[in-house]
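Q: Convert this sequence to structure tokens.
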Amino acid sequence: MIVRVPVERLRHIEGFSRKRVQGLVDKIRSEGVWIKPLALDDAHDLVLDGQHRMEVARMLGLKWVPAVRYRYADVELWSLRPNHAFDWREVTRRALAEDPYPYKTVKHRFPDGGLPACRFPLAELFE
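A:
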């Protein structure tokens, strides 16, 4: 189920590309709609999928973002980097300590097969 979550509560689990964020800002601003929810853990609002979209929301000054919450223990995760090994507890610990992993480190497979599409007019996310 897609819910609206306050942007101020979101936390990164890994880094992001500023260039990619700017490209998404331009795209979302020109289209005027938000079409993909973020994936969050249900305990701390850690961003499991959507690091760039989180930064887009901040740059645009949005109050809300569409999101789907997951129990992190039920989400499969792995690293794209051979020198990083972790589980959901370690990712959570680092995120809460504001020590996110480097960009493109943590990958997830969600139990429901992926994030649904959505269509939120940007105006609704400022309110």
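The longest helix spans residues 18-31.
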